[in-house]
Write a structure and sequence with these properties.
229 residues; Rossmann fold; eight-stranded mixed β-sheet
Amino acid sequence: MNTTSRAERREHSVLVSTDSITLEGNLVIPEGSRGIVLFAHGSGSSRFSPRNQFVARGLHEGRIATLLIDLLTAEEERIDLRTRQLRFDIDLLARRVVGATDWLTRQPETRDLRIGTFGSSTGAAAALIAAAERPEAVAAVVSRGGRPDLAMSVLDAVRAPTLLIVGGDDVPVIEMNREALAKLRVEKKLEIIPGATHLFEEPGALEEVVRLARNWFQKHLAPAEDSFS
């Protein structure tokens, strides 16, 4: 596995215009990247989520670029802290993920990179809806402790190979993911990490998420004639 140091990657803040608003994000492009992963968080998280940051660093080590964005504006975040409603507005989150996907296809730095989405919690549903709406752009999807069942109505339209990762002790979410898996009509897999709970806080659990996600994205984001080494 080739790794990249901080000096071997371009890293900067970006503004993503979508859905008539502007979202803040962090874009990291390791040298030699041949794919980029858009993170779709949920349930009150943000681009500064330690878990998503950890996964992103693991992807960088595999020469995969990342875009972490806040799916809500600062004002919407303040509203959501009081109401806890916007984080469950799947249609809103999905529109933002679709918009960010379109943004990636227009930027000189990223337009030639194949796009994957990494969704957690309600963000997984938004990521899958975006994959269904942009089948020509989204080449792979990974869900971590996600709620793909919230996108059930569009799952049979998803064309991107999809990996669902769930903690072995997250029993209700396992069943939700099994139901979603049955609806998907693409290359798909459900990985259950033994002993892990919903947030994958147990020793080694998040490292296993990174390994599984990195392998999935390396397989499906590499150009057909190429491969990650």
